[in-house]
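Action item from last meeting closed. Structure (223 res):
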């Protein structure tokens, strides 16, 4: 893995896990110092993140973590509501005991994070569940698109979400696993639509306040 790729992965992880909250400024000089690389290298990574909509770069203002508009937030979630149920029949065809065990283990991690009130980790684990589920379908192009939508949903929840956005009130993922175990495809599709629709209904217009970021501390293990 190239150095640029390592920096990209670390920054993406920090964004998705909300260590870099929506709206956080990303000064090239401070990131260059934190990672021990040139500003040119940091600029390349920021440009890649900007193409993927995780970062916004404005002339004379520099880069900052994308803070999605309400319209964008709704469009991201509407896209997931439309697309994710479509993959359920293919997922059901590939479903087996090993998959059920893997996803039940993920559900236990989600419940532990919620019990420990680790909101950022809960959001990350929820996204991972949906990403890995989509990858079980036979349409890798669609699965890749859903992966990007899940990452962008993390930004949406960071900006507008509430605790209810990732709690069992949105539907316990174990319920979906039970339906797949029983090969109840139509019911599983309905569950997914309801689950994602509930997440959409839980978002609030009240964004969170930005906090100062210590880049040297955040990326101290960058090597």
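Sequence:
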């Amino acid at each position: 893995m190239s150095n640029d790729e390592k920096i990209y992965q670390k920054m993406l992880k920090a964004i998705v896990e909300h260590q870099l909250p929506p709206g956080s400024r990303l000064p090239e000089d401070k990131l260059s110092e934190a990672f021990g690389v040139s500003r040119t290298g940091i600029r390349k990574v920021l440009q890649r993140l900007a193409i993927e909509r995780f970062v916004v770069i404005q002339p004379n203002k520099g880069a900052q973590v994308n803070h999605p508009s309400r319209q964008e937030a709704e469009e991201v979630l509407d896209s997931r509501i439309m697309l994710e149920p479509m993959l359920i029949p293919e997922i059901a065809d590939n479903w087996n005991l090993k998959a059920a065990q893997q996803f039940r283990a993920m559900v236990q991690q989600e419940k532990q994070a919620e019990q420990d009130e680790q909101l950022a980790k809960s959001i990350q684990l929820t996204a991972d569940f949906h990403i890995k589920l989509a990858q079980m379908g036979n349409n890798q192009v669609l699965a890749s698109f859903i992966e990007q939508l899940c990452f962008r949903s993390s930004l949406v929840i960071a900006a507008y979400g509430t605790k209810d956005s990732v709690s069992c009130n949105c539907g316990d993922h174990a319920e979906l696993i039970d339906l797949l175990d029983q090969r109840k495809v139509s019911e599983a599709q309905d569950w997914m639509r309801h689950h994602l629709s509930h997440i959409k209904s839980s978002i609030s217009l009240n964004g969170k306040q930005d906090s100062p970021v210590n880049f040297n501390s955040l990326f101290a293990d960058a090597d």
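Note appended to the action item: The chain has two domains: 3-67, 70-202.
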